[in-house]
Each structure stands twice: as C-alpha cells, then as structure tokens.
Amino acid sequence: MLVCAIKFKEVFARHALEDREYIYFPSLEDWSKIEKLLEILKVFYDTTNVISGFDYPTFNLFLSEIYRIKMLLDTSSKSSDDFFKSMVTNMKERFDKY
Is the pLDDT of residue 64 over 70? Predict the structure, then answer.
C-alpha cells in the first residue's frame, strides 16, 4: 500500500488544496520517512521471497539473506532521525533475539 501511496503523493497535496476538511495528509518529512521505511521493508520482502521459494533449494541462500537483514538493521539503527531510529532499534532487538 505504501508503494502505491508514494506514486500519488502529489495528489494528496493537491487534494488538501481543494478540500479544506482534508487536513491529515502526509508532509514532505512524512514522505521522506515512508521512503526510508520502504527501503527496509523491500529487503524483508525480497528475503522472504528468496527463503520461501519452493521450486528450488533455498537453504544455501538463507545465511546470506539473514546477514543482509542484520547489516541493514545495524546501519539503520544509527540513523539521525529519532522516529526512524526508534522503529529500527525495536526491529533490531527482535531480530537479535531470534
């Protein structure tokens, strides 16, 4: 849904200009956060598709995909954005637990 929403981010802003009751639209800062979030979610999506494959053996791909997620979470948890850092830190704690 977020991928579709980003395609129409200009429409949200235009709608806010035309409809005075439409006040809860994403700001430029919100869109920036959504784009950062999508970068992380894409890695999880791609990893899920690789690991869940049933037409081919996936065990040999498992370790490299898990490492890819770990590196992404480690680097993202050092973000200067407090909201993003908090979210990723929570994800990283759960990831490290397992």
Answer: yes
Over the chain, what is the mean pLDDT? 86
- DSSP annotation of 20 reads T
Task: Say whether pLDDT at 70 is over 90.
Answer: yes
Instruction: Give pTM, 2 decimals.
Output: 0.72
Q: Tokens at residue 56, please? A: 């081919």
3-state secondary structure 28-60: HHHHHHHHHHHHHHHHHHHHHHHHCCCCCCCHH
CA atoms of 92 and 51, how far apart (whole Å): 19
- Kindly give the interhelix angle for 82-97 and 59-76, rounded to the nearest 10 degrees: 140
- SS3 percent helix, strand, coil of the chain, rounded to 5, is 75, 0, 25
